[in-house]
């Protein structure tokens, strides 16, 4: 398995490919042809958001346990909403919460990073369009979600889409643990085998609606255990095989 990190290197963003702890600079385009270049030290490397998606397509209520805690019926088909590209932040960047917005929740999710332009992809071909997997924190202003009855405002604040720490290539997403920790305390703990709609089903469904571009992310939904974060908290989304995505919460 290769993990692609986007790092600050010699004053600019570069990709590095990590295999079993060894980091090598990427030469070429991660969405096209690339090869591994010289080995580098990972020590002190500042991690950036691994991709710059044109959109993040999120799936609501895709774990049975989360639908139950929200008192919502299981959806007959995936419930989609978008997070804007401007909400993206990388590992260790701050989640900025406006005090007037009320309760702000973490949502630990497995994300799928699209590798090439995807339009009406049949179920049996979906794997060809996946670059790799990523961790996503679908930060949500819960009070505003309940008040608005739709998701654009509550999910769309700047900094409400932490992604990272890498894109894990060649990782089987069918049964990975997905966890959230707040200040080191375990708050969400489930596995992707509990997904109502699977990764291939989501890719086929979403690309029947909209074209996905290289770097776009599908965030597959959150399990039960969602809860509030407050300024000063440190929140970690951990996806097995991908790693830990940690962000501090600060008052905007
Ligand atoms: Mg979510």
Plain-language structure description:
With 252 residues, the protein is mainly beta. It has helices at 64-69, 142-148, 152-156, 199-207, and strands at 2-9, 12-19, 22-28, 34-40, 47-48, 55-60, 79-84, 88-89, 95-97, 104-106, 108-114, 130-137, 140-141, 161-169, 177-182, 185-191, 217-219, 227-229, 234-239, 243-251. Strands 1, 2, 3, 4, 5, 6, 7, 8, 11, 12, 14 and 17 form a 12-stranded mixed β-sheet that branches. Strands 9-20-19-15-16 form a 5-stranded mixed β-sheet, with no helix packed on it. A 3-stranded antiparallel β-sheet has the order 13-10-18. It is globular. Bound molecules: magnesium ion. Magnesium ion binds at residues 58, 107, 109, 138, 221-222.
Give the structure's gist in a few sentences.
The protein has 252 residues and is mostly beta strands. It has helices at 64-69, 142-148, 152-156, 199-207, and strands at 2-9, 12-19, 22-28, 34-40, 47-48, 55-60, 79-84, 88-89, 95-97, 104-106, 108-114, 130-137, 140-141, 161-169, 177-182, 185-191, 217-219, 227-229, 234-239, 243-251.
